[in-house]
Amino acid sequence: ELIRTLAEDVLAKEVLTLHCPLDYEKHAVKPKEGLGALDILALEIKQEVLERLDVQSLLTFRRVNQEAMDVVNGMVTWKKVLDNAPDTIRMAIGAKVAHRFTLCQLLDKICQKHCDTCGHLAPYINVYTVTRLCRDLALCPG
């Protein structure tokens, strides 16, 4: 398959998963804790608000308590990104650039299959600029 991730070509999945975890379910959760002022909002509104956060802030919010984790885990955008490209988020965490883009911006790039510069099939997402890149940048006319 022509479309591949950088993780498949360069990084061992086990190393990326170990050093950049996405699931922080090992924190102590008190069942009575809520989300403060967000509790008055409907679930759909909470999720709309969270979709506007950058990925790093969203990951931080997920760690607040079990309810926060459940709200994020229930987001369609979150599920789509995790189902299709979880290592992209891990790479952004590892490179300390997850604060530069939202989950929706990332999903748009995951769904896009062509280079932002030349339009050829592009197997990579640059997590620094959230752009699609060709395999051979030297041949890319852009």
UniProtKB/TrEMBL annotation:
Domain F-box: start-end pairs: 35-81
SUPFAM superfamilies in the record: F-box domain (SSF81383)
Superkingdom per UniProt: Eukaryota
PROSITE patterns: FBOX
InterPro entries: F-box-like_dom_sf, F-box_dom
Name this protein carries in UniProt: F-box domain-containing protein
Originating organism: Lophiostoma macrostomum CBS 122681
Species classification: Eukaryota, Fungi, Dikarya, Ascomycota, Pezizomycotina
